[in-house]
Design brief:
The chain is an alpha+beta fold. It folds into 2 domains: about 45-240, Chemotaxis protein chec, CATH 3.40.1550.10; about 255-329, Surface presentation of antigens (SPOA) (Roll), CATH 2.30.330. The chain has helices spanning about 5-30, 45-70, 90-95, 120-130, 145-165, 215-220, 230-235, 240-250, 270-275, 320-325; strands at about 75-85, 100-105, 110-115, 175-180, 195-205, 205-215, 260, 290-295, 300-310, 310-320. Helix 2 (about 45-70) crosses helix 5 (about 145-165). The longest helix is centred in the N-terminal third of the chain and has 26 residues, at about 5-30. The relative contact order is 0.12.
């Protein structure tokens, strides 16, 4: 038989529930004063310093893309993916075999830096430098000594770009030290030491290649005070008035090709091969028609032909803007 509670018993139950809620709230407040910390993977580089490193290596990616585009004679896109803090053992385990690991030494900092490139990218680079198209997919394999020498100049330029962007914070003065294909023979830090790994992606000819830069914490430790956002921005090199004047003078003295195109005509290969001396080609324009004037294969002016003294000349009749240039392609 169910027992009916009295008013006093109901109030006593409600008060017990309220007290239990207060205890739970106090326990939650107590837990809020603590946060989980993994002593095996300590974050020894602050978020502000990571942002500064990201700024530095975004500049590195931009300059690297420009350099590789010129070397490979193809459009290259380089992106900074992430900057992570891991232990050195975790990093070496993640590397594939064979690998392409360049060990760099610094003149200003005590220690070594790793720069790991995809073997497939180095083989693609060798193919392009030796005149190949780079369109054939190449299976990754160990880089030979001859191939290392072929790409050495590009690698040295890459290291130079890394030094240039790090000058925003501190002089790195890194230089090539050695090359390894097996991660087990590379030991620049203890297994438990924290390292910063900069993950970079290189895209060229619809292919994606990975590049990593590994910097041990003991190298970064004396540099960290210079890696605040204010320090990086404050040490950015500014162009002086004298340097700006020299740049303007050099730019003004630069010569560019300017071509006045009289006209154009289409003919068959048969007619072209049958051409003889004194043959006449009929153009589709009259003697009074305006000519296209191109600079670097881009139409910039319209002009009319004429003479100045005993020399042939043209007179600019119209300046072509970017929108109007589309009609003259």
């Amino acid at each position: 038989m169910n027992k009916i509670l009295s008013q006093e018993e109901i109030e006593a139950l409600l008060s017990n529930v309220a007290n239990s809620d207060d205890i739970a709230d106090s326990e939650m407040d107590e837990h809020k004063r603590f946060h989980v910390y993994d002593f095996r993977h300590p974050d020894r580089i602050s978020k502000d310093q990571i942002r500064s490193m990201r700024t530095i290596h975004e500049n590195f990616a931009r300059l690297l893309a420009t350099h590789l585009s010129a070397v490979l004679r193809s459009m290259v896109d380089v992106n900074l993916l992430s900057i992570d803090q891991v232990t050195y053992s975790e990093y070496t385990v993640s590397l594939s075999t064979p690998a392409s690991i360049y060990i760099l030494s610094s003149e200003t900092l005590d220690g070594k830096i790793l720069m790991e490139l995809s073997p497939s990218f180095l083989l693609f680079l060798v193919d392009r430098l030796l005149g190949g198209t780079g369109d054939t997919a190449i299976n990754p394999r160990e880089i030979t000594v001859i191939e290392q020498n072929v790409v050495r100049n590009v690698i040295n330029n890459l290291i130079g770009i890394l030094n240039e962007v790090w000058d925003q914070a501190i002089e790195l003065k890194a230089k090539y030290n050695s090359f390894e294909t097996d991660p087990q023979f590379v030991q620049i830090a203890r297994s438990s030491d924290t390292i910063a790994v900069i993950f970079i992606e290189i895209k060229v000819k619809n292919q994606s290649y990975q590049m990593n830069v590994c910097i041990p914490y003991y190298i970064l430790e004396p540099v960290l005070p210079y890696l605040s956002s204010q320090a990086v921005i404050g040490t950015t090199k500014k162009v002086t008035d004298a340097e700006r004047t020299i740049l303007n003078q050099s730019l003004m003295a630069t010569k560019i090709p300017l071509v006045a195109q009289l006209s154009s005509v289409k003919m068959t290969i048969r007619d072209y091969l049958a051409m003889q001396k004194n043959d006449v080609i009929a153009l589709e324009t009259s003697t009074e028609s305006e000519m296209l004037v191109t600079i670097g294969n881009k139409v910039k002016f319209l002009a009319v032909p004429g003479k100045k003294g005993r020399k042939k000349a043209i007179q600019i009749s119209k300046i072509i803007d970017n929108l109007d240039a589309l009609f003259y392609q």
